[in-house]
Every structure is written in structure tokens, then in C-alpha cells.
Design a protein that fits this description.
Length: 337
């Protein structure tokens, strides 16, 4: 009963938080003069990806700072770092595709995605390069100075990506005129916009935390292995904010924001957290880790090829990502059980 209540409270919190966050972040992006790609791929993506990335970074740095010899934190951190972009490149893409299918009757474009193809292609292209680097580094033993070089390349690569994203893309369209917390005021003050953005992000984080707890309690009650929770169920919960944000934007026909929220988070997750992992852990990837990386790269590669060939995406093309996620779940269950 308690677990059921936890699930309900968590889902309500994430849903409400996502609704208020998408409303506020669009207005904030408009006030800052940002373009569609920058709002989705930077402002929204980093806002929802940074907190969960900090969990992985803390797990990695805690034994380093405390002098603990335990490698458990490193293993948890590596799993979380690689799991996040994998979830985004597979399951989140599936969710975006399903959303286009479900809301097709209220969307002018139907099941097609009306996107800034150059922005999304750049996001996915950068992701493929840097996530492949992350995998390659995990296959060989590197001396410390080369690890530092790799970490710098990853950080500078993200900086280059940010610069290009800020300088390109289409302008925001149909920016909401009213904040949800001030529905009667047409021109809300900037501090209210920032407050709603941060407050809604806090609600999303609290909801994700409750959801992870509920998943763990439910899995323990069912007798599921702890490894299965760490590899499959917990990452699924922590990526819910990006998925719900994208669902709301897909419903409103704002496809660049919806997809950019996912691809921008993929790019962030494959660079900055990976840099910490390379520097402060052995970064030796297990077979299941490599399996997740390969599936993520294939899923992202298919999207990139589709954009290169036609500059368009359809719901069915994105839904293929669900098959890659299912393949990983089956592989994880077999490996653990």
C-alpha cells in the first residue's frame, strides 16, 4: 500500500513539475533571446540532466575524497553515467515517437516531426562522436596524463557544442504569454519566471527521488536482484523528467523543443559526467556496459542517417529505439540471473 502511494505521489509530482517547467523554461528562453535549439538542447536538457548527473559524480568522488578503498561508488557511477545516455538514445526516443502517434489528431504535422533538422542532427552527431570516445577509452588502460587529455577533450567538445548551439537554430515560436503560477498576468516579472523554473525543477527532482525509492521497494518485495534495479529500473526512473517534458512539448506540436530536450541531454551526459568518470575511476567497462553503449550508438546512428538522407523524422523511425531498449533489458536479465 505504501509503495503504491509512493508511485502515485512520484508520478503526480513529476507530471506537475514537468508541466510547470516546460511553461517556465520557454518563457525564460524567450526573455533571454534564445533560439528553439538552445532552449531545448541546452536550457531544458541541462536543467533536467544536471541533477541526476550529480548523483553519479558524487558516487565517484566520495571514495576519492574520503580515501575509501571501496570500488562500489565507482561501479555505481560508471553504470549511472553510461545508463543515462543509453536510456535517452533508446527509450526516450521511443516515448517521443509514441507521443507523436498518440497526439497526431491535435498536431498539424500528425506523426511527422516538424523539427530544426540542423540542430537535432548536430546534437546526435556530437553525441555519436563523444559517446564512442567514452566506449573506446573504456577498452584500454590509459596512463593518467592521457586520461587528463581525454577529459579535457570531452569538456572542450561540450563547450564547442554549446557555442554552436547558441549561435544557430530557428527562433522560438508561440512562447506562452502567462506563467502557470501567475495565470492572470500577461507579462510576468523575470524573477517569477526564474522562480517557477527552479521550483518546478525541484518538484521534478523530488518526484524522481520518490519514484526511485518506490521502484526499489517494489523490486525488493518481488524478490528482484539488486543488480537488475541498478542497471534497468533505477535509470528508467531518473530519466522520467526528460520524457515527460518531451511529451508535453510533443502534445503542443513543439517538436524541436521536445526532441532537443532529449538529444541535448544525450550530448551533456556523454561528455561532462564521462570526463569525471575517466579521471576518477579505472573506467574499465564491463560487457553489459559495452552492450548498452553499442545499442545507444546504433539507435542514435539510425536517427542521424535518417536526418542526413531526408532531413525529416517520423514517429515510427523514433519508436525503433524501444527495440534496442528491450534488447538491453533481456541481455541484463540474462546476465544477472
Amino acid at each position: 500500500m505504501i509503495t503504491t502511494i509512493e508511485f502515485i505521489v512520484a508520478l503526480v509530482g513529476i507530471l506537475l513539475g514537468a508541466a510547470f517547467f516546460t511553461n517556465a523554461v520557454e518563457i525564460l528562453g524567450g526573455r533571454l533571446g534564445m533560439r528553439q535549439g538552445a532552449v531545448g538542447s541546452l536550457l531544458a536538457a541541462v536543467g533536467t540532466a544536471l541533477p541526476e548527473s550529480m548523483i553519479a559524480i558524487v558516487a565517484i568522488l566520495e571514495p576519492v575524497l574520503t580515501g575509501s578503498a571501496s570500488g562500489e561508488g565507482a561501479l555505481i557511477g560508471i553504470g549511472a553515467i553510461l545508463g543515462a545516455p543509453f536510456m535517452l538514445a533508446t527509450l526516450a526516443m521511443f516515448v517521443v515517437g509514441v507521443s507523436a502517434l498518440i497526439f497526431r489528431r491535435r498536431r498539424e504535422q500528425g506523426t511527422d516531426l516538424r523539427i530544426d533538422a540542423a540542430t537535432i542532427r548536430r546534437d546526435v552527431g556530437f553525441f555519436l562522436i563523444f559517446f564512442a570516445v567514452a566506449a573506446g577509452v573504456g577498452l584500454v588502460e590509459l596512463p593518467l596524463y592521457l586520461k587528463v587529455v581525454v577529459a579535457l577533450v570531452l569538456a572542450l567538445g561540450y563547450g564547442l557544442y554549446v557555442r554552436r548551439t547558441l549561435a544557430s537554430g530557428e527562433h522560438l515560436e508561440e512562447v506562452p504569454e502567462r506563467l502557470l503560477i501567475l495565470p492572470r498576468r500577461q507579462d510576468p516579472p523575470l524573477f517569477a519566471v526564474v522562480f517557477q523554473t527552479l521550483a518546478s525543477l525541484g518538484v521534478i527532482l523530488a518526484g524522481a527521488h520518490f519514484f526511485v525509492d518506490a521502484v526499489e521497494h517494489a523490486a525488493a518485495a518481488l524478490g528482484l536482484p539488486a543488480g537488475l534495479i541498478a542497471l534497468v529500473l533505477a535509470p528508467l526512473a531518473t530519466e522520467l523528467p526528460e520524457k515527460f517534458n518531451s511529451i508535453f512539448w510533443m502534445r503542443d506540436g513543439k517538436d524541436t523543443l521536445a526532441l532537443g530536450n532529449v538529444t541535448g541531454a544525450m550530448m551533456f551526459q556523454s561528455t561532462i559526467p564521462v570526463a569525471f568518470g575517466v579521471l576518477f575511476t579505472p573506467w574499465n567497462l564491463a560487457p553489459l556496459d559495452l552492450f548498452a553503449v553499442v545499442l545507444a550508438l546504433i539507435s542514435g546512428g539510425l536517427i542521424y542517417v535518417g536526418l542526413r538522407r531526408s532531413g525529416k523524422l517520423r514517429a515510427g523511425w523514433l519508436m525503433i529505439g524501444g527495440l534496442f531498449y528491450l534488447a538491453f533489458v533481456v541481455g541484463a536479465v540474462i546476465a544477472i540471473l
